[in-house]
Q: What sequence folds into this?
């Protein structure tokens, strides 16, 4: 059984393709194991996204900080299928999907969204993240990084098709999308 609550402030100028403002969210969820009582824990998630116009009015700098923290009592566990992950097209684009998994995660993203034409947008990206076992281990030490570039074909403010190519020590990874990663 699980339940929770969230607080969200959406101050973006355009939700589908923001150029200014931010989306700030805090989530709290409690999980209770009805059968064995080994998997009782709380999850706290903070997702902060901010969008700034660059020196060129049509371009955007997008930044994101996202963390998921799990709180459990002694003897309790977070089941593997509910553990947060890092890696893939939504966060660390230079790594395979679900490459890193543990009870807590931290991901930082930076994008420069350059509007080449009205229907074409180029993106430069940098990602960093890590997973860790205890919430007290949160920090920037040990971050895994990736960098890359992408492109978006747009119709007005809507993205019809996009692709990101991310690089990391694990190699190159190509991700297709129909929206921004954040």
A:
């Amino acid at each position: 059984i699980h339940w929770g609550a969230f607080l969200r402030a959406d101050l973006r100028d355009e939700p589908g393709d923001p150029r200014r403002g931010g989306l700030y969210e805090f989530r709290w969820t409690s999980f209770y194991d009805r059968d064995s009582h080994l998997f009782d824990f709380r999850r706290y998630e903070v997702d902060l996204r901010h969008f700034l116009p660059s020196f060129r009015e049509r371009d955007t700098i997008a930044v994101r900080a996202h963390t998921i923290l799990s709180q459990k009592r002694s003897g309790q566990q977070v089941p593997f299928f509910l553990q947060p992950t890092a890696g893939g097209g939504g966060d660390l684009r230079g790594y395979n999907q679900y490459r890193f998994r543990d009870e807590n995660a931290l991901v930082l993203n930076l994008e420069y969204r350059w509007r080449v034409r009205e229907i074409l947008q180029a993106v430069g990206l940098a990602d960093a993240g890590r997973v860790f076992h205890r919430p007290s281990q949160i920090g920037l030490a040990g971050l895994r990084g990736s960098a890359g570039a992408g492109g978006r074909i747009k119709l007005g403010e809507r993205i019809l098709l996009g692709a990101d190519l991310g690089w990391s020590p694990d190699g190159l990874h190509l991700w297709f999308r129909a929206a921004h990663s954040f």
